[in-house]
Amino acid sequence: MPDQNPTAQNGAPDQAETSTSVPFATEASADGQPHVTTPQRYDALLLAGFGGPEGQEDVLPFLRNVTAGRGIPDERLEEVATHYRHFGGVSPINAQTQQLREAIEKELQDRGMDLPVYWGNRNWTPYLEDTVQEAAAAGHTRLLALATSAYSSYSSCRQYREDFARALLNTGLAGTVMIDKVRQYFDHPGFVTPFIEGVDKALRQFEAEQLAPEEIRVLFATHSLPSADGERSGPPELALGEGGAYAAQHKAVGEVIMEQLRFELPSRAGTQWELVYQSRSGPASQPWLEPDVCDRIAELPEEGIKAVVIVPLGFLSDHMEVLWDLDEEAIEAAEEAGLRAVRTATPGVHPEFVKGLVDLVQERMDAVPVTDREHLTTLGPWYDVCRPGCCENARRGFSPAAAGLVP
């Protein structure tokens, strides 16, 4: 792939235009350069997760945390709660984040990198505020954060940056603890490789059943967003079209996956793919990114499709939106449509994914030049320091955030 990067294309600001300091940042990131050029020492890693309930009594309090400030009554939250209650009120996401933490720790140890890994969540224990206090108490005040989300949008990037700022401000540790954040890694080989392997395995299964390439459709699924938030994902200057950087990044990764699989087996040229969305939760009057995965599945038989490969491209692990919205609802939609269906694996703790995350940590610590950074699409490598106005929340506007230029 060409060594292009978002700073050098689409009219994005160059380094000379970024003089505003970055709140809560280390020295190497504080000047706001899109990609750091000075190697940086860190005391520890901060693994930032979404969080999830651990039992039936936790479900509603957890959902209240997730929807705080939106005024959603408990009766409506209970509709979503049924998904968690189906699994005993326990979300798998905490256990999966803990497994990822342990895998990262082992990879760091194997490389001789002396970096403890702290874990804090946005919506459930362990909360980020407590985690930051724990790190500071241990003398670890220079933190490099890894968010458990690969793409650009408010909820998958900026909200984590706001979480960091809130944790520092609420604990009184602003000015003592510094937090930088690893770049978005949607097109890093470590993230993409597990998906390539999963789609290849699913296609081979259908091919062994004598299905023609034209009879198979690959559906890359990701969490839907309000359309206004999608438009605001990424820096405003990039102007990446409908769905903003969020949609553009997913589409670019989907194209890379299918190009690789068609290169390995040219007969797959007839297998088409598309990006679909899931897990919409807003009112019917609010436009969200479409098409919905179940709606598309219902339409595919009329297009001559006999089998679907459902790829959870927007997710790191098999948490609730995968287990319920894909494994239950999407698979049921496929059965009702008379389609064969396979849902591929998420990266989880795949060795290449874990290795890739630690590669990204090393890249940031060493200030690897942009031209030497691993990326598989022309959108990457993404920014180390988020640009002004990046991933605004359309409803609430801007709140204080770490790891990026104001606002």
From TrEMBL:
Please tell me which top-level EC class this enzyme sits in.
lyase
PANTHER family recorded: FERROCHELATASE, FERROCHELATASE, MITOCHONDRIAL
Q: What is its EC number?
A: 4.99.1.9
> For Fe-coproporphyrin III, which residues are the binding ones?
S91, Y160
Give the encoding gene's name: cpfC
Q: Which reaction does it catalyse?
A: Fe-coproporphyrin III + 2 H(+) = coproporphyrin III + Fe(2+)
Spell out the subcellular localization from the entry. Answer: Cytoplasm
Q: What does this protein do?
A: Involved in coproporphyrin-dependent heme b biosynthesis. Catalyzes the insertion of ferrous iron into coproporphyrin III to form Fe-coproporphyrin III.
Q: Which GO terms describe its molecular function?
A: ferrochelatase activity
- Record field: compositional bias (Polar residues): 1-23
Query: Which InterPro entries does this entry report, sorted A to Z?
Result: Ferrochelatase, Ferrochelatase_C, Ferrochelatase_N
Where is the region Disordered? 1-37
Q: What is this protein called?
A: Coproporphyrin III ferrochelatase
Source taxon at top rank: Bacteria
Ligand binding (Fe(2+)): H223, E321
Name the protein family.
Belongs to the ferrochelatase family.
* Keywords, ordered alphabetically: Cytoplasm, Heme biosynthesis, Iron, Lyase, Metal-binding, Porphyrin biosynthesis
Q: In which pathway does it act?
A: Porphyrin-containing compound metabolism; protoheme biosynthesis
